[in-house]
Amino acid sequence: MKSFSYVAQDARNKQVKGVINAETEQEFLKKVKEKGLYVKDYRESDSDESKSLYKFNTKELAFCCRQLSAMLNSGLTLVKSIDILRTEQENEKAKAIWQDIYENVQKGESFSATLEMHSGSFPDFLISMVGAGESSGSLDIIMQRMSDHYMKENKLKNTVKGAMIYPIILAVLCVVIVIFLFTFIMPTFIDMYEDPSKMPALTKIMAAISDFLKTKWYLLIIIVVGAFFGFRYAMKVPSFRLKVHRLMIKGKGFGPLVTKIYTGRFARTLSSLYSSGIPMVECLEKSSAVLGNAYIDEKFVDVVDEVKQGETLSAAITRTEIFEPMFTSVLYVGEESGALDSILEKTAEYYEDESDSAVQRLVSMVEPILLIFMGVIIGLVVVGIYPALYGSFESIENE
Question: 78-134: per-residue pLDDT in tens?
């Protein structure tokens, strides 16, 4: 029996440390899972080597699901398909995980149960879908759906990253220009004043900022770093995280755009789960969890309870006041017509296209704000140094 020490997070995002005895790493991970914990780091008690869990990203998940779907469709057995997929892994940690999955499935374990042993590496959504595919005998179809799902998730992430490149460059440029103006340009003109007490009020403020950046720049770094880690810590506090996540949805201007992105992801996930035969209550719990928004999670506790009591899905979701009226109307039509799965799929495609546009509009809101900020700073510096510049011109003319 081995002892494993671990660092994990519980359901409230609180860090938990402990030791668990188990025969194998898989058994240890299973015991941690049963405790409702998410492992961040672990090691054998008699080993100095720390073993961080390898987490598959959306691109890797899309590739694995697509390969499995293709091989299962071509008539290969699941064991053989996993064996081939294992050899295709480039990352050694990923290869080790698939090796373990291959060995367990070969011994007779179900694919979903084996994936659950590595729940820190694979998302719960995928594990649930694989379980549904095994139960219905349509694992190949489920793998194709999961491939499409993660390809679209990856596309959205790449869209966001690509769209944010220019604003980030612009923000860095703003910071560099401000620092340059206050540390090199301002001191030159401030020195033109023979009597600093005669400087205009704005110039005195500019001079104070310039002096602070030149002599106490380290305090600014401490403040920025402190604010960053302070915010990260605050986000672990449920009440604060709830307010931030609510602001993301309800904020003026950007709120409706963020909601469109959430709607696309929610509709796609709900469509995939519901069409696989998973009960609606479980579909709702997993679909809302995929969004990673505490405010939505809180609202969906009531939605799940209402659906359990016999309320229609469209009516329960309408009362959350999260999604657009058009989306809830579509849900109502789907329920009334008995074609909720197909309507959800079409709605997901529509909102995924809208998500791309929403990302672009969010970025377009940031760019002018940064440009205006940079223009205001430059304007203030010009106004601050103008009296000194004007005075120097006068003295030259008098000579």
Answer: 999 999 998 888 888 888 889 888 888 888 888 988 888 777 788 888 888 888 888
pTM of the complete model: 0.69
Q: Note the pLDDT tens digit of each residue in 230-269.
A: 998 888 888 898 899 999 888 887 788 888 888 888 888 8
In CATH, what class is 255-359? mainly alpha
Residue 243 contacts by C-beta under 8 Å, 6 or more apart in sequence? none
Q: In the sheet where 2-9 sits, what is the strand order?
A: 15-22, 2-9, 38-44
Long-range contacts: 150-154, Cβ < 8 Å, 24+? 150/58, 150/59, 150/61, 150/62, 150/65, 151/58, 151/62, 151/66, 152/268, 152/352, 153/58, 153/62, 153/265, 154/57, 154/58, 154/59, 154/62
Which CATH number applies to 58-152: 3.30.365.10, 2.60.40.10, 1.20.81.30, 1.10.1240.10?
Answer: 1.20.81.30
Which residues lie below 8 Å from residue 53, measured CB to CB, with a gap of 6+?
A: 39, 40, 41, 42, 120, 121
